[in-house]
């Protein structure tokens, strides 16, 4: 079976799922953020896995996009499974995801954001801080069967604030592209 090919015949105490669609498109979102992740959960449950750690996203709190709805549907199934404990980790943006914006702006390009740039605020987090938090969710009983939002240090900032700060730091005239949220 595909499950045996992918996971072997062994059982696991913990499964950590970081699956996410690459495009955020409608088909990818349902195929990956929901169905592929559900397939992993199904195999984990069949093999007697005790705990499932899901890397989700903070933006599912106000679902507008398909990938957010797909992630939420899976979160609900995980929470209702009953035979496996879980930790649902919802990080804000990654510092790494902002690196592309920095490169574009440094080359004279615009800072791109959705809507007016104030739809949401976040506290970007490093990959290593997130990885530590996810590992902690396996070891710490108080993190079991919970949805756990996490962000980096400092005050939460909107995309507009982040872009404005970037232009100030680079001593450049601000140029923004505001992508209508309806496009997604």
TrEMBL record:
Family matches, as PANTHER family: DIVINYL CHLOROPHYLLIDE A 8-VINYL-REDUCTASE, CHLOROPLASTIC
Highest taxon, organism lineage: Eukaryota
A molecular function GO annotation: 3,8-divinyl protochlorophyllide a 8-vinyl-reductase (NADPH) activity
Gene3D superfamilies tied to this protein: NAD(P)-binding Rossmann-like Domain
Location(s) in or outside the cell: Plastid, Chloroplast
Name of this chain's protein: Divinyl chlorophyllide a 8-vinyl-reductase, chloroplastic
Pathway, per record: Porphyrin-containing compound metabolism; chlorophyll biosynthesis
Stored InterPro entries: DVR-like (IPR044201), NAD(P)-bd_dom (IPR016040), NAD(P)-bd_dom_sf (IPR036291)
Any one Gene Ontology cellular component term annotated for this protein: chloroplast
């Amino acid at each position: 079976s595909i499950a045996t090919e992918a996971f072997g015949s062994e059982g696991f105490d913990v499964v950590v799922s970081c699956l996410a669609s690459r495009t955020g498109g409608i088909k990818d979102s349902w195929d990956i953020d929901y169905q592929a992740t559900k397939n992993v959960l199904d195999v984990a449950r069949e093999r007697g896995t005790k705990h499932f750690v899901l890397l989700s996203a903070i933006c599912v709190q106000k679902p507008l996009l398909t990938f957010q709805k797909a992630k939420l549907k899976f979160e609900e199934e995980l929470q209702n499974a009953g035979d496996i404990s879980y930790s649902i980790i919802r990080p804000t943006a990654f510092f790494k995801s902002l690196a592309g914006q920095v490169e574009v702006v440094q080359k004279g390009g615009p800072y791109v954001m959705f809507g007016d740039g104030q739809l949401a605020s976040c506290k970007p987090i490093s990959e290593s801080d997130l990885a530590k938090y996810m590992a902690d969710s396996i070891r710490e009983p108080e993190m079991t069967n919970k949805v756990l939002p996490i962000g980096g240090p400092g005050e939460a900032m909107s995309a507009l604030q982040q872009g404005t700060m970037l232009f100030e730091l680079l001593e450049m005239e601000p140029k923004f592209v505001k992508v209508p949220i309806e496009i997604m």
